Amino acid sequence: MFGSLICLLPSTHEGGNLLLRHRDRKFTFDGQALLQGAPPASIAWVAFFSDVKHEVALVTSGHRISITFNLYFEPNFARPIPQATSEHLFKSALKKLIDDPLLSSVHPCLGFGLEYAYPFERAVQRRGSINLKGVDATLIQILNDLRVDYRFYLLYKEDACPFRILSKNIIDGDYIDEGDEPIFNRLIDESFIIWDSGFEHVQDPSASEDYHSDWWYELMGRIDEYGKSLKSMSVEWVTEPDEEHLDRSVVVKYGNETYVYHYLCVVARVIKPAPNEKHKQGGASSV
After folding, report:
1. What is the pLDDT of residue 179?
2. Within the chain, what is the greatest distance between any pair of CA atoms?
3. Which of 33, 63, 198, 246 lies 20 to 30 Å (CA to CA) from residue 170?
4. What does each C-alpha distance from 93 to 71, 110, 146 come to in angstroms?
5. Which long-range contacts (CB under 8 A, 24 or more apart) does 87-95 make?
6. What is the pLDDT of residue 116?
7. Tell me: the pLDDT tens digits for 98-153?
8. Are the beta carbons of 191 and 230 closer than 8 angstroms?
9. pTM for this one?
10. How far apart are the first and last CA of the chain?
């Protein structure tokens, strides 16, 4: 299910407006006003994505009658693909960045927080099976059109921690304790550390004055015990991940449950391919 379709029947009532909210945008659907003066057999309808918050205001008189349909993608039919013309502002700006070797070297990796919510595991492990919506679909179409390598990542964060981790691994229900080397190998594989600005990279986070005894620092300490380290990546965020799409995984530390929070995002490596380089849609392992 990717969305809902609500059809409001022509029954006389007052109130009952449908209130929609997504990020910082709000919209009020007043179906009764739309039906005023319309032919008797008319209906008013509105469709919205499933992660758009919605509620019905109080009906103060009469009866509000509506029919709600759940919307699904039909696997036997091709998905609609947005067409971003060359005049698209973002497409033009991104192409200018790619064509300028100096700019692309200064900002080699661009990060995009997604506008809508998606199943995390499917996005990072079975990317071709997710159905992107709205501007997210347009973003990926533009990246494909310009032959830009990209990947979906989970961006892990924790409060009072000066770094974040990009990973294609989903961390949940694992014990962060001595002797759990497999979890570290799984985490380190295709994972990157992102340091917040103004914080100098230190090999041993526990030696820093900003050390906090939280899950990430313990994790970093464990990784160091095995003689391993996370690769660093510098990401320029074009659109920051949205707090409304923040999700959490339950992990266990010394027998106690705690939470690790993550967003779904896209990271694109802005490097102009060689003239004869064969492009693989969806990104290469260099990202």
Report:
1. 54
2. 75
3. 198
4. 34, 13, 11
5. 88/138, 88/142, 90/139, 90/142, 91/142, 91/145, 91/146, 94/142, 94/146, 94/148, 94/270, 95/146
6. 86
7. 898 888 888 889 999 988 887 776 676 666 667 888 888 889 989 989 999 999 98
8. yes
9. 0.69
10. 31
Q: Residue length, the chain? A: 287
Q: In the chain, which residues have pLDDT < 50?
A: 198-213, 254, 273-274, 276-286
C-alpha–C-alpha distance, residues 204 and 264, integer Å:
28
The span from the CA of 281 to the CA of 87, in Å, is 22
